[in-house]
Write a structure and sequence with these properties.
The chain is an alpha+beta fold. The chain is about 15% helix and about 30% strand. The protein has helices spanning about 35-40, 125-130, 135, 190-200; strands at about 20, 65, 75-80, 85-90, 95-100, 100, 110-120, 125, 155-160, 165-175, 180-185, 190, 205-210. A hairpin with a 2-residue loop joins strand 9 and strand 10.
Length: about 210
């Protein structure tokens, strides 16, 4: 099992839990609206290190921190205890973001490969989610169109084991107040402007380590 031992020099750092999601053919993402949606979810005068209209704890705002020398640039590490995601950079530092992880026992520690990225993704609840909370998820069994109220938010990184889609994601969330807590059905949640920034820096094929709490 992965432990904190591999980790980042500056504070508690590991990772979080992803939500279970997929996209359905019935749901759509209107590309003509992407720019307007990005503007809608990004505060005026946005500065990653100081903008906080969401009222989250200041420690969850993006910060550059020192990284251990043995970590691979491009990889992601999620700390389930501190609720931090670290993206390792090639200059001995990491960009740290606040996240929310899964509720209860839905968190799934492990080593994953990011095999897909999507802007303004559609979303479909898994059968397990529908069975667990039918009143919440069954109305969306055929999928939900992309947009600012979609549970996957503005960007999503899709986590695989080999060629198997785990239905775990690192994604934006329309519920920014959940950051720092346990809120999802498995996925790692981020503030939408924060994952928009991260998304541009992450390459498919990168590894995501989700550490045990």
């Amino acid at each position: 099992m992965l432990t904190k031992r591999h980790f980042i020099l500056s504070a508690a750092a590991l990772f979080s839990a992803p939500l279970s999601v997929s996209s359905a053919a019935a749901a759509t993402s209107d590309r003509s609206k992407w720019s307007a949606w990005d503007a809608q979810v990004t505060p005026a005068g946005y500065d990653p290190s100081t903008s906080n209209p969401w009222g989250i704890a200041s420690r969850f705002l993006p910060r550059v921190v020192e990284a251990n020398p043995n970590l691979i640039p491009g990889d992601i590490h999620v700390d389930a205890i501190a609720r931090y995601l670290y993206h390792i950079r090639d200059n001995g530092t990491a960009m740290r973001y606040g996240v929310a992880i899964a509720k209860g026992n839905l968190y799934e520690p492990g080593t994953y490969t990011i095999k897909r990225k999507a802007k303004w993704p559609t979303w479909t609840p898994t059968q397990a989610m529908i069975k667990r909370e039918p009143a919440v998820y069954e109305p969306h069994a055929d999928g939900m169109d992309a947009g600012p109220s979609n549970p996957l938010g503005s960007r999503a990184l899709y986590l695989y084991v080999g060629n198997r889609d785990t239905y775990l994601r690192i994604h934006g969330s329309p519920n920014p107040r959940s950051i720092g807590g346990r809120a999802s059905s498995g996925c790692v949640r981020m503030i939408m402007p924060h994952i928009n920034d991260l998304y541009e820096q992450v390459n498919t094929g990168s590894t995501a380590f989700l550490y045990a709490p």
